[in-house]
Design goal:
Immunoglobulin-like; 180 residues; GH; globular; 18% helix; 10 strands; alpha+beta; 6GAL/EXGAL
């Protein structure tokens, strides 16, 4: 994935459409999270639309399992970018530590701050955040998808008066923090 300066210069929207990746195991699911992150942050897409929801035959590309009609881990990972980042929200500058295994993006709209963090590594990563500008939230709700956890809500995170907090992201996980 690389920046697309000609699209940005044209003033037109740039969408990833009709895209799908086979997700046979959780490592593949994490690669999908990484690709969505890179599409939104590096290439600066305005939208990312997954191609396959369900098909009449079993497939690893689906978001809904054919056999048991349950959402797949892939669907939960996509949910981190779809449930709380709503139309009209804007991606805002976010800078993470020099750890290449932690991918962080932040979005704001309607008075809400949404942070999506992807820990691609095999160890937990502790990251400090500072919220600058605007009205500071008092806390963040948190949701995690990892091996065995599907968009599971976690404890709320309290914000200090200075607008900072630290969060430990489990290995091989996607976490969404939503201001409360």
């Amino acid at each position: 994935m690389k920046p697309q300066p000609l699209v940005k210069k044209s003033g037109k929207q740039f969408w990833m459409t009709e895209h799908c990746i086979d997700a046979g195991d959780f490592n593949s699911v994490m690669k999908i999270a990484e690709q969505i992150h890179n599409s939104l942050t590096i290439a600066e897409f305005n939208a990312y639309i997954h191609w396959w929801l369900r098909e009449p035959v079993p497939s690893k590309m689906m978001l809904l399992s054919f056999q048991n009609k349950q959402l797949t881990p892939k669907a939960y990972v996509i949910g981190h970018f779809a449930k709380f980042i709503r139309p009209g929200y804007f991606r805002v500058n976010s800078v993470s530590s020099n750890n290449n295994n932690l991918l962080v993006s932040a979005y704001t709209g309607n008075g809400t701050v949404v942070i999506v963090a992807i820990n691609m590594g095999s160890s937990p990563i502790s990251q400090q955040f500072s919220i600058n500008g605007g009205t500071l939230p008092s806390s963040f709700s948190s949701y995690i998808t990892s091996q065995g956890k599907n968009f599971q809500q976690q404890d709320n995170i309290k914000i200090t008066e200075g607008g900072s907090f630290t969060y430990s992201f489990p290995s091989q996980s996607v976490t969404t923090l939503v201001s409360v």
